[in-house]
Amino acid sequence: MRQPITFVHGNLVFGAGGADDAWALYRLTTRSYAGLTSARKRELLGEIAGFAYTIAADFQILRVSRSTSVEDYADMAYGLADAPEPESALLDRMVSAQRARVSLLASVTPEVFLAVALRAEPARDLRASVSRALGLRDPRALTARAMAKLIQEESKVHARVADFLDCERATTGDLQWLVRRAFCRGLGEPESDPRWLPQALVLDSDDEDGGWRFEPLESDILRLFDAPIEVGARALVTHSELGETHQAFLAIGALPETVAFPGSQAELLFAPLEALPFPVDAVFTAQWLANDRAVALTRRRLVDADNVFAEEQDGHHGATALTAARPAVARELEEYLTSSERPPLLRSTISLAVSASTSDELEHAVERVRAQYAPITLHRPAGSQLELFTTHLPGQRAGTRAYEDVLLCEQLGAMVPTATHQVGSDCGFYIGATLTGAPHPVLMDLTEAPRTSRPPAMLCSGTLGSGKTLAAELLALQAFAAGSRVVSVDPKGDHRLDAVVDPEDVEHISLSPDPEFRGLLDPLRIGPQDTRTDLAYGFLIDILPSPVPASWQTEIRRAVDVVGESLLASCAEVVDRLINGRDDATEAGRALETYAQGGLLRLAFAEADSPTRPALAKRLTVLRIANLVLPLPGTPRAEISSDERTGQALLRLLATYATHLMASDTSRHKVLLFDEAWMLLGDAAGRALVQRINRLCRSQNATPILATQALADVGDLDNLLGALFCFGVETDHEARQVLDLLGLDPEDAPLRSRLQSFRRGRCLMRDYEGRVGAVQIDLADQDLLDVLDTSPAHARG
C-alpha cells in the first residue's frame, strides 16, 4: 500500500500526492434529527447542500463511530467524583450496576469529519509523475512560502464551511485517532500517543521560491500504519494491538432516480447506519464539477439516453419503462443546470466499512447491512478492498471509480450525514438508553451547564406515574455520589433520597408555624442583595387577594424600597412602616398584618430576634413545609383560595431559601431538586424567579432540577431551561405543548401519540447541545428502584 498520508501540519493533511494533495480537516457537529419538523429537516438538507454548492473544491465526508468500553466507562464515572467527599460506597454500587447495563448496549457515538482539498486533483500527466518520482512534488519540496499560502487558503475554506455547517478545526489527535482506529475497527478504541506530533526538518531552500523548506520525518507518519494487513479478494484482515479484525468494504450502487425526503431511502448516511445494532463507518467522496463541466457531462448523457431509447424502441419488445424515462430525466437535469443559479454537480462514491472479530461474523454483518440498505444494491468489489480501506482514511479521494455516480448537491443534503439519534453528555453517568434506532447508552453530567455557561436549569415534566420524579432523584443521587451537595425541596413528602444515603450525611428541615422557624423564609433576609426588594415586593403582592389596588401596590413598593436599604431588613418592618403611614399605606399594611400573624405565613415575616439559618451543614438537605396547601395546576389566580395563595407564595420563597443555603463554597458543585415546579413556571413572576435562580446557580456552581406535572405557557420557557426530560402526558394538547418546547413538530400526529403512550421512565430528552432523542430512563439497580419508586403501579407490583 502506497503511503496514503505523507505529512500533517495542524489540521492540514497531505495525501499521497504530497504538496499538491493538501486537505483541510474539520470536525462537524452532529444534529438531532428524529422528530424535527419537515421544514427543519429541509433546512438541514439546505445547509449541507449549500456547503456542497459553494465549496468549489473536492471534499470527503467521514462518518465514523467512537466506542466506549465498559472499562472506559467505569474510569470516566469515577473521574467525575468531586474529591474530597465522594460517597464511595454509593458510587461503587451505582457504577457496578451501570457497567453491567453499558456492557449490554452498543456503546458507540457517531462522529463526522470533513476533509476539503485545498488544490485541485493532482495532475496525471507525465511531467507531474516524473516530478513526484524525483521527490519534487511532495512535502520535501514545500517551502515556507508555499506553506503560508496553504494556511491562508485553509482559512478561506474554513470560513466557507462555517457559513453553512457547525464545524471546528480537527487536531493532530483527531488525525491520529482516525488512522489508528481504521486498523482495529470493530475491536475497540486504539491507544493514542498524547505527545504524537509529526516533525519536520527545516532546511535552507535554494530554489527560486527562497525561504525555508520542510523535510518531514517519515517515521512519525509511518508509526500510524504499523499494523500488518492481509489482503483477500473481498475482505481484509488487520493485525492490530487489540487483535485481529476482519473488514469488508461495500460500495453503494446506482441510486433511485427519485426518492421522497424525508425518508430512509434518501437519508443514506444516517437512517440505515443508525438502525444497525453494530457500528458501520461510511465515507462520501466528491469531485466537485463546475457548472460548465456538469452541463457538458449531462448533454453527453442525454445523447446516450436518446440513442439507447431509439435502439430499444426499434426492437421486438420496445423500450423498457426505465429506458423510456431516462431521456426526460436527463432533460430535466439539463434544464436545472442551465438555470440562472448555475449549480455544480458532484462526481461521488459512497463506501461502507463493516468489521467483525471473525470471518463468519463479518459475513453475517455484511448481510445485515445489505438488508438495511435494500432495495439499493451494495457491491463488494473483488480486488479493490485495500483501495477502499485507504478511501476511509482522512484526506483521500475515491479508491475506485467503478462505482461513481453523479449527484446533485441536494442529493447529498438529503443523505443528512450530520444527523444523529445521539443525545446526552459526552461524558457523564449512565441514565438510560435511546429508544430510536439501535439502543445506545445515554450519559448525563450535571456539572456541564455551570462549566459551559449554559442555562443550568433542568426540567423533568410529565403526568403522574410517568417517571419524572424518579428521573430527577436519579440525577440528584448520581451527583451526590460524585461529591455534590444536594438540597431537596419536597412539598409532597415523597422524595426518598434520604433513604438511600448515609443518615450521617442528611439533615431534615421541616418548616412549620412554630416560633423557632418564624422569619426563616423572609425574602429580605434570604434574597440576594441585588434582587431581594423585588422578591419581597412580589411576595407581598402574591399573598393579597386579587385584584390588588394600584394605590396599595405603589405604597408597598415604596415601603419595601425604603426598608430594604438596611442589611437586617424584614417584611415585618415593611408592614410596620405601612401601618404607620397614611390612608392607602395604612390599609395595605393592615391587610398584610392580618396574613402575617397567622399560620405558615409567619415563616416570611422576620422580627429583630428571628433566627437565621447557616449555610449547608450536611451533604443532603431535605426541605419540607408541613400542611402546605397548593392549587391545582392551571387554576386561574382569581379562583385560588387564601390557603392556596399562601402555599404558592411560600413555595416560591422556599426555592429562594434553598439557593440561599447553597451560597457558600462555590468550588463544590451543588444540586437543587425542586418538586411542584409548575408554581415557578406558570406566570411572569415565577419565570423571573427561575431566571434569578439560573443566574445564582451559574455563579454558585449549582444545577437546579425542576420537576413538574404540568407545563404552563411554553413560549417563555426555552431560554430558562438547559436540559429537558419530557415524560408521558395525558392529552393531545399537552403533547403539542411538549413538542413545541422541544423544538419538534407539534403537527406530527404519530409523535404526539407516542408521547401520550410514554410511561415508566420513557421520555423525550433534550440535552445541553439542543439534541433531542427518545430515551428510556434506567436506574440499572433494581434495589435502588424499589427504594426510590413510590408510584402506585410499582407499589401494587
Task: Describe the structure in your own words.
With 797 residues, the chain is an alpha+beta fold. It has three domains: 5-70 and 111-290 and 344-418, no CATH class; 429-518 and 615-796, Rossmann fold, CATH 3.40.50.300; 519-610. Helix content is 38%, strand content 20%. The chain has 27 helices and 29 strands. The strands form four sheets. Strands 1, 2, 3, 5, 6, 8, 11, 12, 13, 14, 15, 16 and 17 form a 13-stranded antiparallel sheet that branches. An eleven-stranded mixed sheet has the order 20-19-29-28-27-21-26-25-22-24-23, with helices on both faces. Strands 7-10-9 form a three-stranded antiparallel sheet. Strand 19 (429-434) and strand 20 form a beta hairpin. Helix 2 runs antiparallel to helix 3, helix 18 (550-563) packs across helix 20 and helix 21 (642-661) packs parallel to helix 23. The longest helix is centred in the middle third of the chain and has 23 residues, at 291-313. The radius of gyration is 32 Å and the shape is elongated. The relative contact order is 0.12. The model has no long low-confidence stretch (mean pLDDT 83).
